[in-house]
Design brief:
- Helices cover about 45% and strands about 10% of the residues.
- It is an alpha+beta fold.
- Strands 3, 4, 5, 6, 7 and 8 form a six-stranded antiparallel β-sheet that branches. A two-stranded antiparallel sheet has the order 1-2. A two-stranded antiparallel ribbon has the order 9-12.
- Helix 2 crosses helix 11 and helix 8 runs parallel beside helix 14.
- The longest helix has 26 residues.
Length: about 575
C-alpha cells in the first residue's frame, strides 16, 4: 500500500476517534440533554405512553379520560394501585365543569366517576390490560354508548351509597403534562418535574405521611420517551368544612403563624430524609433503604438542563435587569424595586459562567443535603381549622411535588423564602432560619448556622440568573402590549388606564381594567409580579449575607472541592 494512502487512512482514523470521543463526551453534557428534551417536546409529545413505574399505558390529556376510552384508562390506573375491589370497573367519566386556572406546569381537571360491578351473574370481570409493549384492550371495559354482544351480561351500576361504602372515589383530580408546545413545556421537560412527582408518590409519600401528608394518590406515572405524565388523586375540598380556602403565593398576604407551621413541617421532612445518614445501624434513611434513597431524583441532575437555559437567558438580559432597565431603557423604575448587590454588577458574565459549578458544589455537600419539596410555598398546601373556623390552625398537607428531590437545604430554603413579600422576609428572615435550624436539632440534625447561611446565600446564584434573565422576556411582551407601565409592585392586577374609560376619555374603573384580562394575560401578569418579588428577595438576600464574599470563598477552595 502506498505511503500517502497509509498516512491518509491513519489521519482519517485518528480524526474519527477524536470525533467519537468528542461526541461521547458531548452526549453526556447538559447541552445534549437539553437538545434531547427539545426533540422529545417537538416530536414525541402526545405519542403512545407507557408508565415507567407501572407499565400501564397512560393518557396524555384530560379529554382522553372523558372520551370513549376513559373508563378503560381509569380502570387500569385505579386497578394498578389496588383501589378497585374485584369485579368493579369504572363505567363512566364526566368532566365536573370546574375551571382550574392554575395550570402553569400542567393541564388539570376534576372528574366525576361512576362505577359498575361486572362480575355478577357469572359475568366476567372486564379489565384493561396493561404493560410494556402491549396495547390496552379499551373495549374490555363496558361503556354506556357501546353495544354489547349477544349474551354479554350488562354491568350493574353501583349506587353512590355503595360507592361510598366501598371507598371508591366519586370525584378525582387529574393532572397531565402541558399539551401546548412552548417555553413552559420545555421547562417542564428540562427540569424533570414529571419524574420527580411520580417518584415522590411511588417511593416517598408513604414514609412521610405522618409529618407531611399529601392528598391520597390513586395513580402517578410518567413516560420518559414522550415526556407525558398523569396524576390521579383525591380532591382537596378547599373552603369546605375544616379545609381553609386555597391561598395564592402572590395575591394573599403572608401570615407568620402559617409560615411557622409550614417551616416546622418542611424542616422535619428534611431531617427525616437526610443525605448523610449514618444514624441507624442498617443505614436506612427515614424508612427508605440506602439503595432506595440513592435512587431518588437529585437537584444537580434534575436542574442541569435548566442551568443551561438560565445561562442563555442571563447572557441576553441579566445586565439590563441588574441596572433596573428594560432593554437598557428606563421604563417603569417604580416597579423595579430591587437593588443589585454591591460588587456584583460588573462581574455578571463571570457569575454566569460560575453558576453551574457553584450549584454542583452545594449539591455535593452531603452534610447539608436532604430530600425536600423544593417549591414549598403556601399555595402548594392546605390548612385546616376546626370548630367552625375558630379552632387552632393546622397544616393539612402539601401537594404539587413536581420539584421534590434531594438538594442542599440552604439552597432549598432560599428558594422557598424568595416568594414571601419582601418586607415580610426582611423582618422575619432570621426568625424563620432559626426555626429551621431548631427543628433540625430537635430531630438530631445539628447544622451550623454559618454553614447554612453560606449555602443559603450561594444558592441564590441560580435564582439571580434565572429571574434576572427571565424578567426581560416577560416585561418585553407586556410592554409591547402597553401593560407593563400599568403594573404596581406587590400586585398582579392592572392599574386602570387613564383616558380609556369611554367616549369622554375618563379613567376606566378597576372592574373595566379586570375585564380586559384574559387567562393567558393574567398568567403573564402573575408571572411578572412573582418574578419581580423573587428577584427583589434574591438581591436582598445576596446583600444581607454578602454573596460576593461567599462567592470569593468558594473560588478560593481547592478545585477538587468545587465539584
Amino acid at each position: 500500500m502506498d505511503a500517502p494512502l497509509v498516512l491518509l487512512l491513519a489521519v482519517l482514523s485518528a480524526a474519527a476517534a477524536v470525533a467519537a470521543a468528542v461526541w461521547a463526551r458531548w452526549s453526556l453534557s447538559a447541552e445534549a440533554g437539553l437538545a434531547r428534551s427539545l426533540f422529545r417536546m417537538l416530536f414525541r409529545r402526545g405519542g403512545r405512553s407507557v408508565g415507567e413505574l407501572s407499565g400501564v399505558e397512560i393518557p396524555t390529556h384530560p379529554a382522553a379520560l372523558t372520551g370513549p376510552h376513559g373508563p378503560a384508562y381509569l380502570t387500569a390506573m385505579l386497578g394498578h394501585g389496588n383501589h378497585l375491589p374485584p369485579g368493579i370497573t369504572v363505567f363512566a367519566v364526566a368532566d365536573s365543569g370546574t375551571t382550574i386556572r392554575d395550570g402553569v406546569k400542567g393541564d388539570k381537571a376534576l372528574l366525576e366517576l361512576q362505577y359498575a360491578d361486572s362480575s355478577v351473574d357469572g359475568a366476567t370481570t372486564p379489565t384493561a390490560r396493561s404493560g410494556h409493549g402491549r396495547d390496552h384492550d379499551h373495549d374490555s371495559v363496558a361503556h354506556p354508548n357501546k353495544r354489547r354482544a349477544p349474551g354479554q351480561h350488562a354491568p350493574i351500576l353501583i349506587t353512590p351509597q355503595q360507592q361510598a361504602a366501598l371507598g371508591l372515589p366519586g370525584r378525582v383530580f387529574v393532572k397531565f403534562n402541558l399539551k401546548k408546545v412552548g417555553p413552559m413545556r420545555l421547562l417542564v421537560e428540562a427540569s424533570e418535574v414529571c419524574r420527580c412527582e411520580a417518584v415522590f408518590y411511588a417511593k416517598v409519600a408513604g414514609v412521610i405521611a405522618d409529618i407531611l401528608p399529601s392528598p391520597r394518590c390513586y395513580f402517578a406515572d410518567w413516560c420518559a420517551t414522550t415526556g407525558e405524565f398523569v396524576l390521579v388523586s383525591e380532591v382537596v375540598p378547599f373552603g369546605e368544612g375544616e379545609v381553609q380556602p386555597l391561598k395564592h403565593r402572590i395575591r394573599d398576604a403572608n401570615v407568620l403563624s402559617e409560615l411557622k407551621l409550614f417551616v416546622v413541617a418542611g424542616a422535619t421532612l428534611n431531617a427525616r430524609l437526610w443525605d448523610d445518614d449514618d444514624s441507624t445501624p442498617d443505614g436506612t434513611a427515614g424508612g427508605l433503604s440506602r439503595l432506595e434513597f440513592n435512587a431518588l431524583p437529585r437537584f444537580e441532575d434534575t436542574h442541569r438542563q435548566l442551568w443551561v437555559m438560565a445561562q442563555l437567558s442571563a447572557r441576553f438580559g441579566l445586565e439590563y435587569t441588574a441596572r433596573n432597565t428594560l432593554g437598557g431603557k428606563i421604563v417603569h423604575p417604580s416597579w423595579m424595586t430591587w437593588s443589585c448587590p454591591p460588587g456584583l454588577r460588573g462581574r455578571i458574565p463571570e457569575l454566569i459562567s460560575d453558576m453551574p459549578a457553584i450549584m454542583r458544589t452545594l449539591c455535593s455537600d452531603a452534610a447539608l443535603s436532604a430530600f425536600g419539596h423544593n417549591d414549598y410555598t403556601t399555595d402548594n398546601a392546605y390548612f385546616l381549622r376546626g370548630r367552625g373556623g375558630t379552632g387552632a390552625l393546622r397544616l393539612g398537607g402539601v401537594f404539587d411535588w413536581q420539584q421534590s428531590c434531594v438538594n442542599n437545604v440552604g439552597q432549598e430554603w432560599a428558594w422557598n423564602f424568595s416568594f414571601l413579600e419582601p418586607e415580610f422576609l426582611a423582618e422575619h428572615e432570621a426568625e424563620l432560619i432559626d426555626l429551621v435550624l431548631r427543628t433540625y436539632r430537635a430531630h438530631g440534625r445539628r447544622v451550623r448556622r454559618v454553614a447554612f447561611i453560606e449555602a443559603y446565600v450561594l444558592g441564590t446564584a441560580q435564582m439571580f440568573l434565572w429571574g434576572g434573565g427571565g424578567l426581560q422576556l416577560i416585561l418585553r411582551d407586556l410592554h409591547g402590549r402597553g401593560l407593563f407601565t400599568r403594573l404596581a409592585p406587590g400586585s398582579a392586577d392592572l392599574l386602570p388606564a387613564a383616558g380609556a374609560g369611554g367616549s369622554q376619555g375618563e379613567t376606566e374603573t378597576e372592574a373595566e381594567a379586570e375585564d380586559e384580562i384574559d387567562d393567558a394575560t393574567r398568567e403573564k401578569l402573575t408571572a411578572a409580579e412573582m418574578t419581580r418579588r423573587t428577584f427583589h428577595n434574591c438581591c436582598a438576600i445576596m446583600t444581607r449575607h454578602d454573596f460576593v464574599g461567599a462567592w470569593q470563598r468558594w473560588k478560593d477552595r481547592p478545585a477538587d472541592r468545587r465539584a
